[in-house]
Amino acid sequence: MKKNKSIFLLSFVLAATVFVGCEDSIDKDNAPIPYESIGGYENSDEVAATHLISKFSFDGNLNDSKSNITGLEGMNVAYADGVKGNAYQGSSAVARYAVGNATAKITSLNDYTISFWMNTANTVPDGGSPGQGKGAQGIFSIVRPTEFWGGINLFLENPDSANPNRLRLKLGVENGRTGVMWKGQSVIVNLDNSLNTWVHIVLAYDSKTSTINCYTNGAPSANVGGFPFAPAEGVVGTAIWYADDPGTYANVKNAPKYGAFQMTGTNGKVVFGNHQFETTPPLNNGSQQDWATSYAGLMDEFRIYDSALASSEVSALYKLEKDKR
Question: Is 251 exposed, middle or buried (0-12, 13-18, 19+ CB in 10 A)?
Fold first, then answer.
C-alpha cells in the first residue's frame, strides 16, 4: 500500500513538473495574441499620425505628447478616472483652467480637427448672480489678446430650456483672412440624452469645401445647428460656412464660401478649461462675463490635427480609444 502511494505521489510530481515546464515554454516561445486591427490601425496614435500635432491624455499631468503646447500653468487643476487612464476634471465649485504656450503649428491651422471625450452635466442658466458652473462653460481657446473671442473657441452653450437633457457644444472660430466679411462662424452640436456619460466628439474643418464636419461617438452628429440659416431641425453631420451673407441655407445670394482659415492677432497662448476672457486676469482686452464660466465636467484624450479627418479615420479613432488603445 505504501509502495503504491509512493508511486502515485512520484507520478503526480513528475506530471506537475512537465506541465509547468510546458507552460513556461509556451510563455517564452509564443508572443501574446495581438488585438484585431480596427480600420487598419493597431492603436489610436496611428490614425492620421503625421497630422497629429497635439495630444493631451491628462494622465495626472498637462503634458502635450507632441510638444506643440507647452508650459501649461494650472489653476486648481485636478484629475479623475477617464476613458483611458486619468482625465481632466473640471469643477462646478471652483474655477479650474490652465494656460500655456502654443507653437505656430497650432496658431497657423487651416484645415483642422479637434477630437476629445467629454463627460458632463448640463450647464446652469446664467440668470441671477454669477458663479462657477453658471452660463457658457469654456473648454478650449486659442488666445487673441486684443479681441474678445479667440481664434478658435470651444465651449458648452447655455442650456436649451425646451430640452433639459440636451447638451449644446459650440465651436466658434474667427477667420481673419482678407476678403472674408463674415469672419466669425460657429456650429452647435446638440447632444441628446448624453448627460453625465462619456461622449466622443470630433469637429473637423475642411477648407477646400468650407465644411465643418461633426461626429458623435464615431458617427455623423444627429443634430447640428447654430450656423447662419440652419434649419430648425438641424442638419446631420455637416454644415457649410460662408464668407458673406448666403441669404438662406441654400445660399440664394451665391455668397463665397469661408475657404482658407487664417487666425490673426494670436499671441501664442492657449487656455484649457476656460474662455480667454474668463481667466484671472483675462487673457484678452476685455473683462470677465457674468454669463460665462470655466468648464465643470470631465475631459479626456484631447487631440488636435492639422487636417480634416475622414469619416473612416474618425470611426477608427473612436473605436480604438474606446478599446483603450
Answer: middle
